Every structure is written in structure tokens, then in C-alpha cells.
Amino acid sequence: MSVQTRQQTSQQTIKQNFERQRKSEKIDRSSEDSKTLSETKINMDSEWTMERVGQTLMKMGDNIEKNRNEITNAVKEIKEEISARFNVLDAKITEVHNKNVEIEKSVEFNCENIDQLKTEAQKIRVQIKEEVQMLNEKLILAEKHDRKYNLVFYGIPQTNEEDINETMSNFLQEQLQLNSKMEIANQHRLRKREDREGPPPIIVKFVHYRDLEAVLQKRNLLGKGQQVLQDLPQVMKQERHKLAGIAYDIRKHEHLKTRIRDHGIHMILETRGTGEKWKRREISL
Question: What's the pLDDT at 284?
């Protein structure tokens, strides 16, 4: 290669290196400028963002204050409404309490009246019971007096086509050995009871009480199955029937004499031993 050619080649190399260096510097400067612009933009964005944040915070502060006032007002209104309702409720409770007090007083008054009425009613009930018992006793005594002259004869044989007057006349004269001149007001046979054996009994109403007593004194002459009893009201007949069973047991087991007689509207049982006086037996029927 000639000297001239080598020189040309060297110059071209130097020129290329210089161009390459310029491009590199240009790129570096461009990169620095971009970096600077970027930093400037970031700074501007940061400033803008902070401003927006500040504005937002101010708005939020205003909203918070506004909301706090609204909440305060709302709470105040709620308190006032609750207070008003409590006042109304308290008034109603007071009214109910007053009514309850009145009711209690009324109930207490009524209870006292009821107790008083019950006491009075009990007194009236006792009084009515006593009056009814008294009237009942008077009725029994009146019925007893009406039957005073009556005797009932049990066990007298009955014949066909019987003449009751002849039957009783024969019985009094022949069996009881009594005067045939006894005056009898009325006599007839009663209806026969199913629980009693023998012929139907005969009821006789005497005109004179002395004749009735004379018949009772002759009862020791009665035959077997025969009996003469005074005619009594039904309630006294029931008592006499109960006492008759008790008297039978006393005669059987205690070997005492017994008798049943009327005392007021009741029947009593009396007993006695040989040579003793009649003593009343206290018996609850």
C-alpha cells in the first residue's frame, strides 16, 4: 500500500471516531435533558397533587363540620322527641296509677260491703233456719195433737166381708176385757205395708182420751204378733222404729225393761231394772 493511501485511511478513521464521539455526547445531553424534564414534570405533578389534597382536605373539613352540626341538631331533635314521649308516658303512668288507687279503694270498699253482706246473709240464713225449724216443730206438734186420740192395732185377724165395728168391739171386750161402752169416733183398716207381715192394721179414733189410756194399760193381754201403738206423725214413727230395735238389744243383752214414749216432737227410750225407776237413755239417732 502506498503512503498516500495510508494517509487517507488514517484520516477517515479519525473522522469516524470524531463523529462517533459527537453522537455519544449528543445522546448524553439528550438523556440529561429528558431527565431534567422528567424531574420538572414530577415536581409539577407533586405540587399539583398536594394542592388537590389540600383542597380535598378543606372540603372534607367543611363537610365534617357540616355533618357534625347536622348530627348535633338531629340528636337534639331526638332528645326533645324522647323527652316529650317520656312526659306523655309519665302522665299516662300517673293516670293509670291514680285509677288503680281508685279501683283499690273501690274494691276495698266493696269487699267490706261484701263481707258485711255475707255476715248479714249468714245471720238471716240462721234466722230463717231457726224459723223454719220452729214452724216445722209447730206443724209436727199440731199433727201430733190431731192424732192424740188415735191408736193403731196390729195383728187383729181379718175376715171376709168384715164388719170393722164388730171386729173391734169383740177384740176390746174379749181379748182386752174392756167395757163395750167405749165411744169410738172412727175406725178402719189401713193399707198393708209390704215390709210387714200379718193383716193390715186398724186405726181407731177414740172420743175420750181415758178410753185410749185404758187400752194402753191392757197391752199385756195382747197375743203373739199383736201390738197397739199410738198414732204419731211420720217423723216420730221413724224415730220410734229405730228406738224399738235398740230397745230389743237392751232387753236381750242387758236384761232390762224398756219403754218408748214421746217427748215433744221426739221419741225417747227409757230403761229400768227390777225395783228401779225409769231412766232415759241418751241415744243419737
Answer: 82
Tell me how many domains the chain contains.
1
Per-residue pLDDT tens digits for 140-167: 999 999 999 999 999 999 988 899 999 9
Distance CA(146)–CA(135), nearest Å, equals 16
d(CA 51, CA 224) in angstroms, rounded, equals 147
Give residues with Cβ within 8 angstroms of 102, minimum separation 6. Answer: none
> Exposed/middle/buried for 229, CB within 10 Å: 0-12, 13-18, 19+?
middle
Given a cut of 50, the residues of the chain with pLDDT beneath it are 3
Asked if 195 and 123 touch (Cβ cutoff 8 Å), the reply is: no
Q: Is residue 238 part of a domain?
A: yes
pLDDT at residue number 82: 79
Identify the helix (H) or strand (E) that includes residue 117.
Answer: helix 3-146
Residue 266 lies in a domain: yes
Q: What is the predicted pLDDT for the residue at 84?
A: 80
Strand partners for 97: none
Range of the domain at 284: 232-285
C-alpha–C-alpha distance, residues 150 and 152, integer Å? 7
255: left (phi over 0), alpha (psi -120 to 50) or beta: left
The rounded distance, in Å, linking the Cα atoms of 251 and 4 is 194
Residue 70 lies in a domain: no
Q: Quick check: is 257 in a domain?
A: yes
User: What is the pTM assigned to this prediction?
Assistant: 0.56
187 touches 202 (CB < 8 A): yes
